[in-house]
Write a structure and sequence with these properties.
This protein is an alpha/beta fold and about 90 residues long. It has one domain: Rossmann fold (3-Layer(aba) Sandwich). Helices cover about 45% and strands about 15% of the residues. It has a 3-stranded parallel beta sheet with strand order 1-2-3, sandwiched between helices. It starts with 6 loop residues before the first helix and ends with a helix.
Length: about 90
């Protein structure tokens, strides 16, 4: 549906969708607005949004999951693993 270059753009794109995406894949280390802040904003707009974090920064895993992310995939990961994770939630 869409791709964003940073967290701020991700929120703007999300707001513009009439039909919200089935799943949102977010990294934590993004320019302008990190994944935690982006997750908070998206979930404030639509609290049923399905967010999966993908990050090399495992120190934020617990925070991301407590905020409402469905899963946290630590980089590096295989495409097959990503596809299986997405299938679990869609």
């Amino acid at each position: 549906m869409g791709a964003a270059k940073n967290g701020e753009e991700a929120v703007k794109i999300f707001k513009s969708f009439i039909d919200k995406p089935d799943i949102i894949l977010l990294d934590h280390r993004m320019p302008v607005k990190n994944g935690i802040k982006t997750t908070k904003e998206i979930l404030n707009i639509e609290n049923k949004s399905k967010i999966v974090f993908m990050s090399a920064d495992s120190s934020i895993k617990e925070k991301a999951l407590l905020l409402g992310a469905l899963d946290f995939i630590e980089k590096p990961f295989s495409i097959d693993f990503l596809i299986e994770t997405i299938k679990k939630y869609v």
